[in-house]
Batch of 2 targets.
Target 1
Amino acid sequence: MYFRMIRNDQKKNKLVSAAACIFMAVSAAFIALTVLLAGSLLGSIDALMKEAKTCDFLQMHAGELDAEALRAFAASRPDVEDMLIGSFLNIENSTITLNGRSLADSTQDNGLCIQNENFDHLLGTDNELLHPGPGRVYVPVCYKSEYDLEAGQTMEIGSTALVIEGFLRDSQMNSMMASSKRFLVNPEDYDRLEGQGSPEYLIEFLIKDGYDIDAFATAYTDAGLPSNGPTITAPLIRLMNALSDGMMILVIFLAGIVILAISLICIRYIVLTGMEKDRKEAGMLKALGLGGKDVRKICLLKYELLSFAGGMIGAIAALIISKPLSMQMRELYGAAGGNAWTLVFSLAGIVLTEAIVLMSIKRNLKKNDNLSAVQVISERENHHGKKKDSFIWIGAVTAAAIFLILVPVNLSSTISSEKFVSYMGVGQSRIRMDIRQCEDIAGISKGLTEKIKNDKRVDKYSLMQTGSFRAVLKDGSNVNLLTEMGDHEAFPLQYIEGASPKKAGEIALSKLNSEELGCAVGDGILLQRKGKEEAYTVCGIYSDITNGGKTAKIFGDAETLTAEDIPLMWSIIYVSLKEEGDTEAFTEEYRTYCSEYGNSVKISDIARYMEGTYGQTIKRIRNAAILSFAVSCLIIFIVIVLFVRLMIWQEKSDISLKKALGISSSHIRREYLKRSFIYIVGGLALGILLGVFLGQQIAGMMLASLGAAGFRFILDWRLAFVLVPFTAFAVALLAVRTGSREVASLNIRCGV
């Protein structure tokens, strides 16, 4: 009997039942999608790193190398499981073409390598160990879609052509946030092409379980071993691999929480709408002797069936949507391990979501338990408060939907902006010149700065030289600080606390370094320079998401420095021009001038540099923004339709009376449009404020873990204040017009 009553009710209220099922499905889909994508990403990365035997500590080095000293150091360390010295032939980007497309504008350091023996393996698309034949090459899989490549096409290095045999997964350099990319060739081809590039070394260590990688890194530096290049550890490798897709997943998770909250509100009003329409039926059942709990049981059973259907639809939708969203993950990292557990946790997320929804429904249904049959049938309940409440919730849901759209939109516009470099530990400039992996970094840097100084197109420039210093903290402990020396006022940062170092004896720390070292503004640090200790005072704390977020800055005239003054690892020259239109010609001229240095000098337009470094991340967040935009507009439409229909049923007696007095349905519908207008506009305004300020706080928490504290949105006003609000406003008005059609279904006798 119960199921027959439920079936008849659903036939009579198809739209309401469908709406409830949709909200349950969307809530379940977003939560399940978050679990599926997170499980897929982390599982894929861990599976790839395990299969490839990724190193725990990597030191890149350009220059002479004493292999015996490295082997002796490894043998003396109880924490070292294995060691290798890999080769990397750095090739000038302008000499490389992939299927006819030049890599001259690439922001990556591209080079050749051969397969390693014991660990750090380069794997194929099926995670198989690769061994290319003579004249063949395996290309990084991240270039496959970027350059539209297929197996069988040609890669050219100068006048040498190699056939692309396939694509490789590099567990250490898959991410575009890793500054280097390895192409795998046969040992014969490596030897043949060695004269066309500059050799570098990848000094890699596997650390035994239970030992501290940071302690090993400090011991390596203290031993004075080769360190002319960046240092990378396994946690940083995992972080770089996870970051681009991880931010998209965080946005989807946030969307899922907001949608669940909206769904609870909407389903509450769906329940209230159903209760309004079925008051007489409920009264009849009570008059026939059924208790309040029995009536509630019938209603709850209906929503339990809808919840089951919604959960199933949500699960299927999550599986379907996750395929295209995880396509890039699968291409970069392969299949995830532990898929069964990911599915189990996804189902658990769906069950939890539906349980929360059903508990909310049960609470709402209890409101009619104590009403008598006469009270229910007579409909003498005062709805005035409910009417006002419904209008307020229209505004609240509109605000939540706008917030849901603006967070990923604003995050995308921020990371896309040239101003985002301020979170990379540098001030905003137009052009960036990197001098790395060469014997005479100081000499090349001075030659370039002399030329730039005399260039009339240059507005201002700044040379920054970076090295590693041994620091002694106030508690007597030692740590190595990656320290940048130069004039930090030329392109100033926005400091979280304090200010930049303006004189000798001042040091600024990145946010993560200040937290790890326990140093605040005003604290003292001793730096070991030229064999003696020099006292420094912390003058400022800044954001930095480069080099693992752990850097420092000291004042100095970088143009007069020598290799004896600072153990140079790299130099960077920042340049701004008087006329922005000169940027392309300027960069091309200086690339030609620096061609004699090979790949040691890399010159980039900051906009291109940002696109090359964060392009994948931006693309993922944009995908999340598009998905949020579509879902939010759908939510606004369905919610407002439901709320307007509820209000019409609550006011059916008044509407019938108006019709009896000769007022037309179209006039009554216009009244609902006018009454909704102020709440929709208010919701839009509140949503924009929340999206800008609260969204900024949430995005800031995401980036703070990477060192980007003090985060501020860089807004695209055309999106944030024009396109998004006006689209949502149009959808909301359309929803009011659609929902108000219910007025026509009420006849003059209804409720009189």
Target 2
Amino acid sequence: MNRKSIILSAWLLTSAAHAFAQQEVPQESTFLNPERVTIKDSRDSMNITIKGRQGEPDFTFSRTVMYPSDEVTVTRERRTHPSFPIPFGVNSVKGKEKAFRMKGTRTFVVNGFECEISTDSTVSISRKPSPFLTDAVTDSVFHIPGFVEYEGKTYQVTRIAEKGFAGNIDIKHLVIDEGVKIIDFQAFICCYNLESIHIPASLSFVGNSIFGSCYNLKSIVVNPANKVFDSRDNCNAIIRTKHNELVAGCGGSSIPSSVTFIGETAFANCRFTESITIPEGVTQIRESAFSGCIELKSISLPQSLEHIDNYAFAGCESLQSIVIPKNVSFIGKILFRYCNQLESITVEKGNKYYDSRQNCNAIIETESNKLVAASVGTRLIEGIEEIGREAFYGVTLYELHIPKSVTSAEQWAFSGCNNLKSITVDKDNPIYTSPAGSNVLLTKDGKTLIRGCSTSVIPQEVTTIGEDAFCGVNFTNSCLYLPEGLKGIDHMAFAGCTNLYQVIVPSSVEYISEHAFASCPDLNIALLKGGGKALGSYAFAGCKRLGIIQLPEGMTTIKDGAFRGCTNLYGISLPSSLQEVGLEAFKDCPCEKEVLQLVQKNNNTSQTRETDQ
């Protein structure tokens, strides 16, 4: 460390000691990666021990304190003593590969509020929901205070914590007192008896989805003195004044004509009447703006609209029809996910970028002939050349026919189409095929299976089960026998499959990728006759009913998290070739200890043989 750095370090230590000498210092702190880091606080320093990962030694860092950034820049260095002091008040440690943020906090409870003291001695506030078994809700006003007192000290409340008041169904009328500056993500989600809220002049930040599932919220009033937000024209919404962006609304909101943007998640999970009209002047609907509005049957979009972002109407289960105005020049992904009653999509004539040709009930990018958004009423017509990324994601499809003109289906084009029972391809299609009765989508050579369904019969010629091919499928046959000759199972190929009781992987399989069978809730038995030398990360993670697994001889490595969360995995047949088990590969499994002991035994045996030779 150079002389300047030493001087700066000494200065910061001295300053920290003076600054916090009269304050109670938090007794515990954590990094975002607690498996590796332990912190013990004293009055003027934090003693940090960094523990190496499996196979690594413990280590510490040399540091250079840079004034006035309050950061400690660290480089990895192995030492005898794995700890070093950092002045209290320094709020982050940055390494070459990862950045960790200290969370120096102390919590207390006062008047039913849980308060967390930040390093600047301000407070983040929350309140656990209490049991509430009656429909009668008091009309009294509930206050979230701007200041709290504890043990003779007064703390300013500056933040309403993330999900801080989630599920507080006993609150009907809410006033947030002056001093509060931040309402964090989903702060009031599921407060379904909440009817009115008053926002203080001090508020300067609003997180996403703060009123999600507040189905009875009708009145939102922002203090007129607030310089960042307003609720102009009695709109019952929070509007970012400078940008004319509506950032949070409710079922009782009306959108003023002066609004330019509907913000991200602004109306997510709101209860609307059957229809809503967005006024002229709005140019952009941002991500998930109306997602989860389950009672919304129709929405009228303005001619001024130019941009519709990802998930804008996802989960609008009652939505029946929509018209895309002619000036819309950008449409995001997964626009109509789980809109299970949407049968009519129309793009206005004159739109230069998109169309819904031949009443196909889809949105097609005109220049590329790419289908970018679909619904339950969509028809794949001749002339469409591409099916865009996630175009049918979550759409309830029962039949899928690929016409001759379609030559490209992008990643996850049919993800979440878990009700598919029939897949066919035009015989003249140059890229894809589907043998009669197979109900699978294959590459033309018949070797890669791109998409399957509950009634699929995997042809013997298939060598690769592609990424996401059967993800989420509800299998008709509970036993899955993969064909001999198969060589690879790609990422998430069978993830989340239901009614899948047993799977047998043939000896020909050379690899099983990450998450290949993850989160299959009904999977009990997996017999792997093949699988290559390494089982992919999280390959069977979250299969809570998995009780028996057989791994093939020749497999040397089980990668990170492969069986994490398999809480009923008692019967496991391990190969004598197994030498390495990744991090948390058997976390929460009853056989974890025995597996690690066997691997250690195998390694010792292998080392002994090498020594003898």
